[in-house]
Design brief:
Blueprint lengths: L5 H8 L7 H9 L1 H22 L8 H11 L28 H5 L7 H4 L7 H25 L5 E10 L7 E8 L5 E8 L7 E7 L6 E7 L3 E5 L11 E7 L11 E6 L2
Antiparallel strand pairs: 1-2, 1-8, 2-3, 3-6, 4-5, 4-7, 7-8
Pfam families: RskA_C (PF10099)
Protein name: Anti-sigma factor
Keywords: Membrane, Transmembrane, Transmembrane helix
Length: 262
């Protein structure tokens, strides 16, 4: 007999007892049909396992673009816009409303035996589609690992108090450590903007005997990398200063806010 219909193999993989005795004997004796059925069962198992895993994050658009390019899908077919239910149009056209005649006389189900005469994909195409689905599902953990970036560890925080020349200013700083060991300081500042000059962020030694510039604060917030070798337990004061545009890299002495990391 010819190979078992791919529809029957797909239902068998899902646990549906739809095969006749002759088809069951053929699957048991035919290596091609047995291999196709095993592949479909493996795909179904992976799909069930994926449903029981932790909630999936929405991948970036480039993930779908890659899948669409591999499968040759149209540009206007996207998961957030296309209606992928059975019988729906890829272009998203809404189904026609049911008429009383439709409700009174629902279409009769088409037996599998009649569907076998319809156009079908070759077994190799079914295997290729199943393999592609397995690859996509197996690739989900890799996508999730990219999306789930480890959170930095907060090491210390500081409330930045205003200096007398800037009575209305206030600020805050947070010292964090990234998984790779990089330390950074996130600074926020609420202060009036001077007529000329710029703001610079510093780490100052506790006794004010030395200081390290972290960079220029653009706007009201900024993130600055702590240079390697700087001991933040010694350089624990966060300072934001008003600097003139005179080309001198030294601290101007005009601090806006300052506070200790604790």
């Amino acid at each position: 007999m010819p190979h078992v219909d791919p529809d029957v193999l797909a239902l068998l993989a899902l646990g549906e007892p739809v095969a006749s005795e002759a088809e069951e004997r053929h699957v048991a004796e035919c290596s091609d049909c047995t291999g196709a059925l095993d592949t479909l069962r493996a795909t179904a198992a992976v799909g069930r396992a994926a449903r029981s895993a932790e909630p999936l994050l929405t991948p970036p658009a480039r993930v779908w673009d890659g899948i669409a390019a591999q499968l040759g899908l149209a540009d206007d077919v996207r998961p957030e816009t296309a209606d992928l239910r059975f019988g729906s149009s890829p272009a998203g056209d809404p189904p026609a409303p049911a008429t009383p005649a439709d409700e009174a006389s629902p279409p009769a189900p088409v037996p599998i035996a009649e569907r076998r005469g319809r156009r079908r994909l070759p077994a190799a195409a079914w295997l290729a589609a199943a393999a592609a689905l397995v690859a996509i599902v197996i690739g989900i953990p890799a996508v999730l690992s990219v999306l789930r970036q480890p959170e930095p560890t907060v090491l210390a925080e500081a409330t930045l108090e205003a200096f007398p020349a800037w009575p209305d200013a206030r600020g805050a700083a947070v010292l964090e450590e990234l998984p790779d060991g990089t330390r950074r300081v996130e600074v926020s500042l609420d202060a009036a903007v001077g007529d000329d000059g710029f703001r610079e962020v510093w780490l100052i030694r506790d006794d004010a005997s030395d200081l390290v510039s972290l960079g220029v604060l653009e706007g009201s917030e900024g993130t600055f990398t702590v240079p390697a070798g700087v001991d933040v337990e010694e350089f624990s004061l966060v300072d934001v200063s008003e600097e003139p545009r005179d080309g001198d890299p030294a601290h101007s002495g005009d601090s806006i806010v300052r506070g200790p990391l604790t």
